[in-house]
Design a protein that fits this description.
The chain is α/β, with parallel strands linked by helices. It has helices at about 25-30, 35-45, 60, 70-85, 110-120, 135-145, 155-180, 200-210, 215-220, 225-235, 240-245, 285-295, 315-330, 375-385, 390-395, 410-440, and strands spanning about 5-10, 15-20, 25, 50-55, 60-65, 65-70, 85-90, 130, 185-190, 195, 255-260, 265-270, 275, 300-305, 335-340, 345-350, 360. The strands form 5 sheets. The chain has an 8-stranded parallel β-barrel, surrounded by 4 helices. A 3-stranded mixed beta sheet has the order 10-12-13. It comes from Microvirga subterranea.
């Protein structure tokens, strides 16, 4: 029932819209997963990977309030259960169904929370969830950069998207816990850092380095920095909306903080606030320690990759570097519970961050789109084989109470769920008392 480290990969399921909503970029379709899903799941066994970041396509599954097409989810999750693969279920990845519109819709949190609960009831053996993937990136690309979905570029649009996305995530966690009280939430979020290019850029970089924490501050019920509090209120968040997040802080006890890191996650900032990619200056270990010092939660490296280039060893070398960073994080006392190469197969059009539909292959997978293993796939398989027995022997006594799908009905699991249900009831009582006290202070 307990695991000390999770080696994972994922099936890319991004679904943002571009061209003012007229074009949807569905990565499962473009990468052939709808056709080859059985083959894809078989590849996990070839790699000896037991944990998969995976989720049904939201826009094809969620047809309207209380209306679903579970046909593809029933097939795929049935096969994952048969194979005893542990899914980290990714319910919303960068887009929503057409009938919801986009992340400016204030009804999105309530609608999505209901979907999350109904999914949990249909698949009660699922324990690990990422309700909404990379909340900060989703809000930034959709409503600050103007690239996806609503394609807006303003502080007000960004804060509106962010508060709706994080509220949906929080409400989804609450609803899933009603069904599965021992659910664990692996919040995959981009870990960023902004470097000042010159002395005049110090202040803009400081602001961006505060802004990078907004999604997780709200998600974990942590009071934001004073400058960010003013930014949120000036950009349309109300005091009541802000206190909604503070009053849900007990949910953090059910969370693992997933940190995603790519070569583009560090930025050089100019004096006017513009930024460009800086490469891996600090690296995953230093930036992850910054996030860990802020939130004090167990950590998982939930996404990384690099395109295979002309030498053929670029991705292999990046895998080695990321794994060295994971070991460095672990050896400095940060409780890190997993590592993920994302994704299982190559992707499409990520060279333009899905802003254009060029149908160009992004060669970042453990396998190419013909399902032939890449050098990084072979190296990852060897890495898992070499380290899977070593890490438990060197454990710092942290275990994650993860249940394999086929063990869900065992008595020990049911007793654990009953105990977690009691704990959750106490947490809700404490939250209600905090809310009453907060109202009194007003």
């Amino acid at each position: 029932m307990y695991t000390t480290f999770m080696f994972a990969t994922g099936i890319e399921n991004s679904i943002p819209t571009i061209n003012n909503g007229r074009t949807r970029i569905d990565q499962m379709e473009k990468c052939g997963h709808y056709k080859y899903w059985q083959t894809d799941f078989a590849l996990l066994e070839e790699l000896e990977i037991q944990v998969l970041r995976y989720g049904p396509p939201l826009h094809r599954t969620f047809l309207g309030p209380g209306r679903y097409d579970w046909s593809f989810a029933d097939e795929t999750f049935g096969e994952l259960h048969r194979r005893n693969v542990i899914p980290i279920v990714d319910l919303c990845h960068f887009g929503v169904p057409d009938w919801i519109g986009n992340f400016q819709n204030p009804d999105f949190p309530t609608l999505f929370a209901a979907y999350a609960e109904d999914f949990a009831r249909r698949f009660p053996w699922v324990q690990l969830y990422t309700p909404i993937n990379e909340m900060f990136i989703c809000a930034t690309f959709s409503a600050a950069y103007g690239w996806w979905n609503e394609q807006l570029s303003s502080d007000t649009a960004f804060v509106t998207a962010l508060k709706h996305i994080v509220k949906a995530n929080v409400m989804a966690m609450e609803r899933i816990l009603k069904v599965r009280p021992d659910a664990i939430f692996v919040q995959s979020e981009s870990s960023e850092y902004f470097h000042a290019e010159n002395p005049d850029a110090i202040k803009p970089a400081e602001i961006l380095n505060s802004r990078r924490f907004l999604s997780l501050d709200l998600n974990y019920g942590r009071r934001v920095d004073s400058e960010m509090y003013e930014f949120l209120l000036d950009s349309g968040m109300t005091r009541d909306e802000y206190h909604f997040f503070l009053n849900r802080s007990s949910l953090r006890h059910h969370c693992i903080m997933g940190n995603d890191y790519y070569v583009t996650n560090e930025h050089r900032v100019t004096e006017d606030g513009r930024s460009v990619a800086a490469g891996d200056v600090f690296g995953y270990d230093e930036i992850t320690r910054q996030y860990y010092d802020r939130y004090r939660l167990p950590v998982m490296h939930t996404e990384t990759n690099l395109m295979e280039g002309p030498n053929g060893d670029e991705a292999v070398n990046w895998l080695w570097k990321q794994w060295a960073n994971v070991l460095r994080v672990r050896n400095t006392g940060v409780p890190i519970v997993g590592f993920t190469w994302y994704s299982l197969t190559d992707q499409m059009d990520w060279d333009t961050a899905l802003r254009e539909e060029n149908n160009r292959v992004t060669p970042v997978g453990l396998y190419d789109l013909q399902r032939n293993i890449r050098p990084v796939g072979t190296r990852y398989k060897n890495l898992i084989a070499h380290w899977c027995d070593v890490l438990p022997a060197q454990s710092v006594c942290l275990t994650v109470p993860v249940t394999r799908p086929q063990d869900c009905d065992e008595q020990v699991v049911q007793r654990h769920q009953a105990r977690m249900r009691q704990i959750r009831e106490h947490e809700k009582d404490d939250t209600q008392q905090s809310s009453i006290a907060e109202m009194g202070r007003r």
